[in-house]
Amino acid sequence: MCGIYGSTIEYSRKQVQDKLERTKFRGPDKLDFKFLGSSNKPVIFGHNRLAIIDIDERSNQPFTYNHTIHIVFNGEVYNFKVLKKQLESKGYQFNTTSDTEVICAAYLEYGEDCVNYLGGMFAFVIFDETKQKLFGARDRLGKKPFYYYLNEKQFEFASQISSIQMHHTNLTISNKAISYYLAWGAVPDPHSIFNEIKKLQAGHCFSLDLTSYNFKERPYWDVDTEVKNPYKGSYKEAITELDGLISNAVSTRLFADVPVGVFLSGGVDSSVVAALATKTTDSKVKTFSVKFNEKGFDESVYAKQVANHLQTDHHVIECNYNEGLDLIDNFTHYYDEPFADSSAIPSMLLAKHTRKKVTVALSGDGGDESFIGYERYKWMKQVNHLYNLPNFLRHTVAKTAGLAPHYKLKMIGKGLQYDDINSLYIASVTGVNMSWLKSDFDYTDVPEKKYLFHNDKNLYERLTDFDIKTYLNWDINTKVDRATMAYSLEARAPLMDHSIVEFAQSLPTAFKYNGNIQKRILKDVLYQYVPEKIFDRPKAGFTMPFAEWFKHELKEYVLSELDMASLREIPNIDADEVYKMIQQHMKGSWNRYPLIWKLLVLKKWLKTNGSGYTIQ
């Protein structure tokens, strides 16, 4: 993993150096840049390298292949060895053992279709000197970030928004993006916090003609919303096939010229990755987990049980209030646009200490989306029955539940007022009670709704498709990329291999969710290696005890940062309503910590990264 940068804007060498220094944490091993274009068609490529494969300087970037193909690349192409052999049989020669060189040769052989041959996580841009064009792509599921600015003959791209932001005089903060953030907890693709900067969407590629400045973006991969190739085998056969797919995905991600470990929370997803890592390597696998001292937040005991069974070299990282506060203070330096998933803090803590032992860590991300694992899917299954009632009966139930004193019943009552189950689901992930948000547009009306509002799949398959395109991409991938890159640690997610995602989509729903058993087939793969009894417990999320901290250790901090005067300065919120909600949290009558954290992050970003910019 690295940081990439490029521009057709005539910046000075000092300015380019500044932009790369800003995100040097993404790749501290080598910072370099080149002026590749001509005087009338400038092209600048820059790179922060985190050396993982072929750590020799011959693989430093910007990299040139065959004299005319230049590339900056972030990520890993896991099938590069197989692809390299195929290209060698066609006459291509290679001078390194890196995947970077293979991308260049694949581009020469297959043109823009080369992206269809690449398996992995990546964001790259190629400067084709002969054709005078730029070609770039982002991986299928959006593991790697890609921001760009395009205005007439000015084009600039980077792994993080701060590189583009620096020395740029033509940016304004997007008021619409702030509303999106307040609703979704992140700024959804293709938007960014700045009006003039966009994100290249997951599974998309682009070309830019440097003569005409014609910019074309297109999708090259998407989830299968119609299940064109449904799985025909038995459940037992599917277990064997999935075992093989995960084993291969884990094995290829263990390949590196630096030490590799596994994030192990003790849950199903990370445990199956750890189990198959021990199966596919002869080396003792290093595993890492986080421990919290607050009651109800310490899952490290379960990770320890799995580690003991698999006989891994296990490391437990203890999180305390002081270290958490330090990470909060530096949060916007790494998450350089507003981001409200509070589990980013323990993710940063885990990455910080894991990096002391390894340079690459495998995670279990992606299992919940592909194998119907989130608790909210179970809740939607239960509520869906109420949507089969006549409208007047459903609204009667909603009204009755809304009068109940219990918060959950009130929210169910409010939720049942939505016209259909799809709208209710969007409300459940943005917020059923959003009376505090003042927005002049429908923040739930995102293009990704098409994955939810159709009838080609059942409800559970549509929910997971929608989450793959939204929550997994906008939230999980952003969280993990920034948290790990903050400490120059590369994170790899075997369960997000597109072959596994596509296989999961082809399976009958009952293979994944049967009765009350969620992630059924993934669990049955795991239980071949780790006893089922270890996982006989409620599912837990990766969270910090913010709810308690905000009422105790961080109470003064919250009340000073979010007093009435400060709230009135935050765009798009009803300050009076929010103030009441904060007081409810402090009194212990309601848990408002997600809203409090969301506002703290936004205020911090506006004060630091957003200082001096107008909001439009």
TrEMBL record:
Keyword entries, A-Z: Amino-acid biosynthesis, Asparagine biosynthesis, ATP-binding, Glutamine amidotransferase, Nucleotide-binding
Residues holding ATP: V290, S363, G364
EC code: 6.3.5.4
UniProt xrefs under InterPro entries: Asn_synth_AEB, Asn_synthase, ASN_synthetase/amidase, AsnB_N, GATase_2_dom, Ntn_hydrolases_N, Rossmann-like_a/b/a_fold
Enzyme class: ligase
GO terms for cellular component: cytosol
Domain Glutamine amidotransferase type-2: 2-211
GO MF annotations in UniProt: asparagine synthase (glutamine-hydrolyzing) activity; ATP binding
Gene Ontology BP terms: asparagine biosynthetic process
Active site, renumbered: C2
Pathway annotation from the record: Amino-acid biosynthesis; L-asparagine biosynthesis; L-asparagine from L-aspartate (L-Gln route): step 1/1
Site positions per UniProt: Important for beta-aspartyl-AMP intermediate formation: D365
Binding site for L-glutamine: D99
PROSITE patterns in the cross-refs: GATASE_TYPE_2 (PS51278)
Protein family per UniProt: Belongs to the asparagine synthetase family.
This protein's name: asparagine synthase (glutamine-hydrolyzing)
Organism: Bizionia echini
